[in-house]
Specification:
By secondary structure, this protein is mainly alpha-helical. It has one domain: Leucine-rich Repeat Variant (Alpha Horseshoe), CATH 1.25.10. The protein has eleven helices and no strands. It is globular and about 50 Å long.
C-alpha cells in the first residue's frame, strides 16, 4: 500500500469534515478497480463497521462493497451477515447506503449473490411498517436493477416486477415501476 492510500485511510479519522470527505472520495475512486492492499485495511474497516459513529459505519460499508472485487481470499463470506445487518442500521441513511451498495458484493460470487438477493427480498417484504419504507423499497429495487445492469439476468427483472406488485400504494408502485425503464 502506497503512502497516498495510507494517508487517505488515516484522514478518514480527521475531525475536519472536508479532509475526511475528500479522503473518502479518493478511496471510493481507487476501489472502483481491484486493489492489492485490501487486506492491509481490512481490520481497520471491520472496526469502523462496528463504530458507534454512523458516518464511520457508512464509510466501512461502502468501502467493503467496493473492495469485494479485490477479495481473492473470500473473506467477505465471513462478514456478509454483519454487512447485511446494516440494512437495518439504527441510522436511516446508513441503512440506505448499505442497501444502495450491497449489489457490488453480489456480482462477485454466486453464493454472495443468492444470500444478498434473499436478504433484500425479505427486507422488502418486512419494511412496510417502518418510517420512509418507500425509500427503503426503492433502494432495494434499484440495487437489484444495478445487479441486472451488470448481469443481464432476466430473472432479476422478474423478481423486481414481483416485488413491485407487493406495494399497495399505487403512487409508490408507479414510482418503483419507473426503475424498470420500460
Amino acid at each position: 500500500m502506497n503512502n497516498a492510500v495510507r494517508e487517505s485511510f488515516s484522514n478518514l479519522e480527521s475531525t475536519d469534515d472536508k479532509v475526511r470527505y475528500s479522503a473518502f472520495q479518493t478511496l471510493l475512486s481507487l476501489t472502483d478497480e481491484k486493489v492489492d492492499w485490501i487486506y492491509d485495511v481490512w481490520d481497520g474497516l471491520l472496526e469502523k463497521l462496528k463504530s458507534i459513529n454512523s458516518y464511520q459505519r457508512s464509510i466501512a460499508i461502502m468501502l467493503f462493497c467496493n473492495l469485494a472485487k479485490s477479495d481473492h481470499e473470500k473473506r467477505m463470506a465471513n462478514i456478509l451477515d454483519d454487512l447485511l445487518a446494516h440494512t437495518r442500521d439504527e441510522k436511516f441513511i446508513t441503512s440506505r447506503q448499505c442497501i444502495q451498495n450491497i449489489w457490488k458484493i453480489a456480482i462477485v460470487d454466486g453464493q454472495y449473490r443468492n444470500i444478498i438477493l434473499d436478504h433484500l427480498e425479505k427486507r422488502f417484504r418486512e419494511c412496510r411498517e417502518e418510517s420512509h419504507y418507500n425509500l427503503i423499497r426503492q433502494d432495494i429495487l434499484q440495487s437489484i436493477m444495478s445487479l441486472y445492469s451488470v448481469e443481464k439476468d432476466d430473472l432479476l427483472l422478474v423478481k423486481v416486477r414481483e416485488l413491485i406488485t407487493l406495494e399497495e400504494d399505487t403512487k409508490y408502485r408507479k414510482g418503483y415501476s419507473k426503475l424498470l425503464k420500460e
